[in-house]
Design goal:
Elements lengths: L1 E5 L2 E10 L1 H15 L5 E12 L2 H13 L5 E5 L3 H9 L7 E3 L28
Parallel strand pairs: 2-3, 3-4, 4-5
Antiparallel strand pairs: 1-2
């Protein structure tokens, strides 16, 4: 897991398998992130090979942290399997979705509501 933080935005780049063992290894780092002032969390899962319901636990953790501040969680590069998990558990309406993050210097406008976070969501695509 790689973490990038900047001005209320936190981007987590996940790879490999996201399962209970992964959560056990990263739970402390995830809790530490929630203690900071984060308006938007971007979970980049484009390099995830396998994810079980643990990915939902991670998203719920960040949703509980950002929603009271009118913040958001964005899932980037979700596989059909992860999208199916979101739908099964009713999280698809609470999580913003993007297929990819464009390279720096090439922002794209979002067609989704940004919850007053325009400075952080320029790059979201439908």
């Amino acid at each position: 897991m790689k973490i990038e933080k900047s001005d209320g935005l936190c981007r987590l780049i996940l790879d490999g398998d996201v399962d209970s063992w992964w959560l056990h290894q990263h739970e402390g780092a995830l809790q530490d992130l929630c203690e900071n002032s984060i308006e938007m969390v971007v979970l980049d899962v484009s390099a995830v090979n396998f994810a079980d319901s643990t990915i939902l636990t991670v998203m719920e953790l960040f949703l509980r942290h950002t929603e009271p501040q009118r913040g958001a969680v964005c899932l980037v590069g979700a596989s059909p399997m992860i999208r199916k998990l979101l739908k099964m558990f009713g999280l698809q309406t609470r999580v913003m979705m993007a297929s990819a993050i464009p390279p720096a210097g090439q922002p794209q406008r979002s067609t989704q509501p940004t919850r007053n976070l325009n400075t952080h969501t320029d790059w979201l695509s439908a």
